[in-house]
Write a structure and sequence with these properties.
The protein is an all-alpha fold. Helices cover 72% and strands 1% of the residues. A two-stranded antiparallel sheet has the order 1-2. Strand 1 and strand 2 form a beta hairpin. Helix 4 packs antiparallel against helix 15. The radius of gyration is 23 Å and the shape is globular. The chain starts with a helix and ends in an 11-residue tail after the last helix.
């Protein structure tokens, strides 16, 4: 695809995104997403899981714009509670609390908020341009993939969650296995025979990943928050013209941090299974390392706000690239969004660019619009969003439970799904207490059918021989990369156990 085609498609996508319906959907999504991002513990992933059933009756383009806008809004909203309340609304906002809240305590909440929002806007804007020009060639390359290559890429996605997840790899493997096991409930995709339904007619169509996601993320988080007895004490903050002028005047000083954070964040976001959280921590660490005044970090340094926010938003955009082009989610939030593709009757992957032009380019066009809209909304409505945290949790929690129940029931109109949602909520609570990662389970549940289909088609192509994965270069490359990531935690463990050389004893 040449540059003129890309520009033509981009103009078409902007036209789709600027229709009154899609513009309204984007605005509503941003408001909802920012409110979700502000609420500690709820988060973008949980919010999208809860809102997914609301998209069933929307056209696919409007539906993906709504969910993507919720995602961008949650990215913006997480910074507000991090800076004003010292409570990260999102996991990727933890690094923002290190310097954002000290700045607010010093009487500069407007400066901290402006630094966060402006750097987020810049990081996202550059990443959207990269997305626009990288996505089409990647999709064209992905068209060369057959079942063996698809299976190898899916295996790499599972390996990424295990090798780069940062937690206990054994727990990630267990959760991946549990998700794959749940994905086998229903009909056998080749023979058409029912399996794993235990005599329940309702389970013959399988277990809905939306119901599981609502329970795991939504209800599980509510149970945890009830146990912790949420208490919030924050600093009142708003953004004035003086804050804007002062911050924008000093912003050129941080150009290297912004460029580094954007490239790093976009690259980490593209890697399957990583997302914005590791990007924000790495960007913060690098900014501190390269700073002339590292001693100021943690005490209210503006650069300590700019670095994580730039990388987090860049990663948020990058995470959608493998989802659209390869059908592999780049983050847990993208995994939940990917579930929506199947509900809307779309097959994620390279063919989307050829068969669903309005959907793909409408989404890309909406990224440009929502990024501008989002920064304007948060800059002007900080006091309103901060006030959400003063709503009693006793009012919010029942509302979220009712919305979750309606969403779960709407999937198949069967009561059994409500019990599955409740059971998933209890399991989500237990898993979080035991520090088991939830994202590998949901990813495996969403991608389980595709993985099984790719594996069985590959074996049919190879007449039952696994050598088909070795004789095809692209499949072999992805398999070796996946194997490396699977073994990475083992290598780290062995290096960590290596005995240190005794220190030389000095005389005297």
């Amino acid at each position: 695809m040449d540059l003129f085609s890309v520009f033509g498609n981009l103009l078409y996508g902007l036209g789709v995104a600027l229709t009154p319906t899609n513009l309204t959907v984007a605005f509503v999504g941003l408001i909802l997403g920012t409110a979700i991002g502000v609420l500690p513990g709820l988060g973008g992933t949980n919010g999208i899981a809860l809102l997914l059933p609301l998209t069933f009756n929307l056209p696919p383009t409007s539906a993906i714009i709504l969910l993507a806008s919720v995602y961008w809004g949650a990215l913006f909203g997480g910074a507000i509670t991090s800076i004003l309340f010292n409570i990260p609304g999102e996991p990727w906002s933890v690094a923002t609390t290190f310097d954002g809240h000290p700045l607010a305590q010093q009487g500069k909440p407007g400066i901290a908020l402006t630094a966060a929002f402006t750097s987020s806007f810049l990081g996202a804007a550059v990443s959207i341009v990269l997305f626009t020009f990288f996505a089409p060639p990647l999709a064209e390359w992905a068209l060369r993939f057959g079942p063996p290559e698809n299976f190898a890429v899916l295996l790499l996605a599972f390996a990424t969650f295990t090798g780069l997840g940062g937690g206990d790899p054994a727990k990630a493997l267990f959760m991946t296995g549990l998700g794959l096991l749940l994905s086998t409930v229903g009909f056998d995709i080749v023979s058409g025979q029912p399996r794993m339904n235990f005599g329940f007619v309702e389970l013959q169509s399988g277990v809905s990943f939306i119901v599981i996601a609502i329970g795991l993320f939504g209800l599980g988080e509510i149970f945890l928050t009830v146990e912790e007895g949420l208490r919030l004490r924050g600093i009142a903050g708003r953004v004035g013209f003086r804050d804007l002028w002062e911050m924008w005047r000093m912003l050129p000083r941080f150009w290297a941090t912004i460029v580094r954070g954007t490239i790093l964040g976009f690259w980490i976001g593209v890697l399957p299974g990583t997302g914005a959280t590791p990007a924000s921590f790495m960007s913060y660490g690098l900014a501190k390392q390269f700073s002339k005044h590292p001693e100021r970090f943690g005490k209210g340094e503006v650069e300590g706000v700019v670095a994580p926010e730039t990388a987090a938003h860049a990663a948020g955009i990058g995470a959608l690239l493998p989802m659209i082009t390869l059908g592999i989610p780049g983050s847990p939030t993208a995994a939940v969004m990917l579930a929506g593709f199947f509900i809307w009757g779309l097959n994620p992957g390279a063919l989307l660019f050829q068969t669903q032009r309005e959907f793909v380019w409408g989404l890309i066009g909406s990224m440009y619009i929502t990024n501008v809209l989002g920064v304007l909304i948060v800059l002007t409505m900080v006091p309103v969003f901060a006030a959400i945290n003063r709503i009693p949790f006793g009012v919010l929690a029942p509302l979220i439970v009712i919305l979750s129940s309606i969403g779960a029931f709407a999937v198949n109109n069967q009561v059994l799904d409500l019990w599955i949602m409740l059971g998933s909520g209890v399991l989500g609570y237990v898993f979080k207490k035991l520090k088991y990662p939830l994202a590998p389970l949901v990813v495996a549940l969403v991608l389980g059918d595709m993985t099984e289909q790719a594996l069985r088609q590959s074996l049919i192509m190879g007449q039952g021989s696994l050598l088909i994965f070795v004789t095809r270069p692209i499949a072999l490359t992805f398999l070796l990369a996946g194997l490396f990531l699977f073994l990475l935690p083992l290598v780290r463990g062995l290096r960590g156990r290596r005995p240190r050389a005794p220190e030389p004893v000095t005389a005297g």
